[in-house]
Amino acid sequence: TTPDDFAAVDTYLIEKLVPEDAALAETRRSSAETVTPGIDVTPNMGAFLGLLVQITGATRVLEFGTLAGYSSIWMARAMDDDGAVVTLDIDPAAAQVARRNFHAAGVADRVQLRIGPALDSAKALIAEGAGPFDLVFIDADKANNPHYLEASLTLSHPGTVIVIDNVVRSGAVLEDESADPDIHGIRTLMTHIQADQRLSATALQTVGLKGWDGFLLARVN
Ligand code: SAM
Predict the structure, then answer these.
(1) Residue 165 belongs to what domain range?
(2) How many domains in the chain?
(3) What's this model's pTM, rounded to 2 decimal places?
């Protein structure tokens, strides 16, 4: 088995189970107009997030890292009309593209996008008393993951589900002396969660169109 085999199986699973409509396909394409193109979740991960929203009955979702709005749209579409996604991104170009995509996908009325460093936006949400959120998806700059987790805990309630993407990074998570701030952020996050009685957590590795990676799933006790 090679990375190509994993990608081919992903393509098959997506074709069979999670076909995209025009709005989702355009959202993925339009990440080319942002500062960090092509780093949205795969369609099967998008569908997984949507299913999580439905399984948990989440009506308030917080997302760190919007890009072109791909994962936001999957989660927003999984909600009833009274649901809301608050999504945070630092890139104004991404925000402009994402807003366009939210309109095309029919979810503009239930997605609130805040532009700026996500930690500042999260602090503002805390100051506004905006929580609690039922589900949090952390998918922005990995270096800040420990801070995003801490803010998420402040904005959560018992039962809140927290998903953190890209925690394996082709195995680089094992590099304890890595100079990469993203790896440092992920390893610090793991150590925090290990010691944090407020959370029950697991992490699963993934292979496919995005190579070898994985996500962490946690529940606030
Ligand atoms: N969740 C999106 C999806 O699956 O469609 C993908 C998000 S992408 C992996 C990461 C995003 O985080 C980028 O759009 C980038 O602009 C944003 N980002 C990077 N650093 C940030 C920061 N300090 N504050 C907020 N957003 C940041």
Answers:
(1) 3-220
(2) 1
(3) 0.98
